[in-house]
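Good day; I would like, with your permission, to put a structural problem before you. The record follows directly beneath this note:
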Amino acid sequence: MSKPYTAIPSRQPSATSADDTVLPFEVKALDVRGRVVRLGPALDRILRSHDYPAPVAKLLGEAVVLAVLLGTSLKFAGRFILQTQSDGPVRMLVVDYATPGRVRACARFDAERVAEAIAAGKADTSDLLGAGHLAMTIDQGPDMSRYQGLVALDGKSFEDAAHEYFLRSEQIPTRVRLAVGEEMIAASGGALQRWRAGGLLVQFLPKAQERARQPDLDPGDAPAGHAISAVSADDAWVESQSLVATVEDVELIDPTLSTERLVYRLFHERGVRVFRDTEVSAGCSCSRDTVANMLRSFSQDDRDHMVENGKITVKCEFCSSSYEFEPDALAGEPLN
C-alpha cells in the first residue's frame, strides 16, 4: 500500500516545478480531488528511442500521459496497462505503468498508411486510431485477479475515452485534459527538439453520493421508448468543469509555468491544497535473463526457426534494446 498524501503547509505556490512529476491536489470547497502530470525527459526518452513519425509519437505521448494520470491512483504495488487495438494506421499502442512511477510505451503502425494520412491532413487521434477499443487493465500481481475496462474508440479522443471509462466503469464524475508538444531549445550544435507533455485529472467526490448522480447510460434497462429522467449536475461540479475547460494545451506543457501555479490559477478563489508530488521515470523491465527465459519457453523447433546467421536476436519493442543469443545457450528449461 502506498503512503497517504502529505499536505504541504500553507504558502505561496512555487514558481518552479520539476518535470516528470505528478502533483495531487484537493479543492475542498468544491468536493474535488485531482492530479497534474508534467512529463519532460522521461517522455522524450520513450519517444526518442523509436523512429516514430511525429503524429504517431504525439499520439503515444497522449496515451502515456493518460496512463500516468490513472496509474498513479493505484494504492498498491502493481501495474496499470493501457492498450489500444484498432483498424486505423496506428494499429496498437501499449503503455505499461508500474508503481511507484516507472513507465514504458510502444506503438505498432502501418508506415505507408500513416504517411498517406499525414499527406491528406488527417493525422488526428480519430484518423490514426480508426475503429477499435481502448483497454485499461489493473494488474495486482500473479496472486490476484486482473481488472479490465473497455471503451470503444470510434472517433473518440483519449480524453473522450477516459470520460466514458469513468462514466461506465467507475461511475465517478471526471474530467481529463491532455496535451503533448515539442519544445525547441538552444544548444551548441543548433536548436534541439524535445517532447513535453502534461495532463490534468479532476474528479467530483462528495460525501453524499446522491450529489454525484449522473444520467442513466443509454440504452440501460429501461424499455424502448421510455424517457430517461433528467439529472441536474451539482453546482460545485458544474463550476469545476467550467474551470477545467479553461485550461489551454500550452499551460499544461509550459516549462515556465509551475504545476502549483497552474493549480492555483484554476482554483485559488475556492482554496486549493496540494500534496507531495511523486516522480515518474522512463524504464523498461526487459533484461538479458528475462529474454533468455522467454526464449527457453518456446519449443526447440520454434527456436530453430528463429535462427538467422547463426544467432537468435530479439529486440524489445518498448526500449529498442537488442539481445543476441547463441542457439545452444538456450537449451534447457526456463530458470526461475
